[in-house]
Amino acid sequence: MTTLRSRLWLMAAAGLLIWLFLFYSHSLVSRLEETNRQANETIAWFWAGTQIPFSLVVSNSSQAVCSECGQTRPYFGEARRFEALCSSCGSTTRWLAVSRWSEEERQQVLDLTRGLFRRLVGRLQYSTVLTDEEGMPQIVNGEPVPDDVDPSVLRSYVALAAKLDKLNTPIPLTGLQGDTIGLLHFGSGELAREMVVIPLIELGMLTALALVLFLGIRTEVRREKEMAWVGFAKETAHQLSTPISSLLGWLEILRTRPEAACDPEVYEAVSCMSTDVERLGAIASRYGEMGKTPKLRVGDVNEVVRDTVRYFRDRQGLLSKGVVFETSLEAKRMVRLSPVLLGWVLENLVKNALAALAGRSDGVISISTSDLQEGGGSVEILLSDNGKGVPFRDQGKIFSAGFTTRRGGWGLGLTLCKRIVEEYHGGRIRLVASSPGKGSTFSVHIPADRGKAEIAEQDDGTLGR
């Protein structure tokens, strides 16, 4: 439980760190967008701030000069000479209308302003379109739109401005009087577009991490649960070893008694008890070997089936009245097996079948073997009964450790069967058919031997590796 809690804390901490990083990335994207907008506002302010003096510079407006004191004032008339009141002289004087800028000065200001704006916009990694208050493009990516531009090109500029408006809200440009004189339409750079995707990627990573952690913890919990059953099995074997040794000693004493040789009933009882104690010792050895990889040898599945059926037939107390065995042993191929462990699998399946046949006087347990060609060749063992069957809701859980439908059951038998068949023998065990009231059929597949008859020596290992 402590290990599980520590893993849950680790999972929670990892999730928290991911969420913090996700929050930071989202904040980074927001700040990048704000910086992007501020950069464009700077461009807009620059354009608006230079547009007014620029328009004044390039205009053909004139100024009037007092011929007496030299005072100047703006002049928008057409006459080149006129008389007017001079505020400095305090009298009516002659005024001369002269050009405000020379052509050379006007062109210098024009070139300087255009060049500065072009260099500024050229540093951007996205498109910009400056339009007038009516939405007509004036400057595209820092280049002025000529008056004689082709209509199709002009339409493409208008479409570009509309496309940019879907990415960002256009920034209004204001004149000296606070009125809107145009709009700055702008897009987003490649870096900004990538940053927008980052939170989605991180969310996917978070989901994947949570899924991996969940599956890892679930697998570990399942493994620990199964290992707990293995530990229980080994402890059971350890606890049984002492009384079994004691029983063997007492049986040896009974054999040496004179009445054991003279009295047939005592002799038979001692013989049967010896057989059962040996059987009990074999069972204890089975539990003791759980958790170790067994040594396999080439053998005949049919012999294991015959030994299992013989064991139950010789002990009528294990069979309900009226229960019979039917066998059809047609397999001819040899397999690599551990006869003791495979026999244990068959015993468990037979015991489950007997439990399902409890109370019936017409019970039948059928066991058949056959050769299969699939997967390079295998031998199949089918064990069927006509008992009460497995409820549909439980059929997917019967091989889970601890699951049982019998009162007082351990829920260990089929779990050990699955481990013995699949992990130790490289085979497969499954419930192929079961209907309530009609019985069940289990299938065991063991890979066929490919001609090597030597014993398969395998290193010891722990369960669940």
Structure, described:
This protein has nine helices and 16 strands. It is α+β, with helices and mostly antiparallel strands. It has three domains: 149 residues, no CATH class; 75 residues; 153 residues, Heat Shock Protein 90. Strands 7-6-5-9-8 form a five-stranded antiparallel β-sheet. The C terminus is likely disordered.
The number of distinct helices, counting runs of at least 4 residues, comes to 9
Q: Given the helix and strand composition, which structural class is it?
A: alpha+beta
Which stretches are low in confidence, meaning pLDDT under 50 for 5 or more residues running?
452-465
CATH architecture heading of the largest domain: 2-Layer Sandwich
Sequence of strands across the biggest β-sheet: 7-6-5-9-8
- Quaternary organization: single chain
Total strand count, please? 16
Shape, per Cα inertia axes = rod-shaped
How much is the average pLDDT?
Answer: 77
Q: Which terms would index this structure?
A:
465 residues, alpha+beta, Heat Shock Protein 90, 3 domains, 5-stranded mixed sheet, 20% strand, rod-shaped, disordered C terminus
Question: Which helices and strands appear, and what pairs or packs with what?
Answer:
Blueprint: H1 2-58, E1 62-66, E2 72-75, E3 81-86, E4 91-99, H2 103-122, E5 128-132, E6 137-140, E7 143-144, H3 151-167, E8 171-174, E9 180-186, H4 190-256, H5 258-262, H6 264-289, E10 297-299, H7 301-313, E11 324-329, E12 335-337, H8 339-356, E13 364-372, E14 378-385, H9 413-424, E15 428-435, E16 439-447
Parallel strand pairs: 11-13
Antiparallel strand pairs: 1-2, 1-4, 3-4, 5-6, 5-9, 6-7, 8-9, 10-12, 13-14, 14-16, 15-16
Helix pairs in contact: 1-2, 1-4, 4-6, 7-8, 8-9
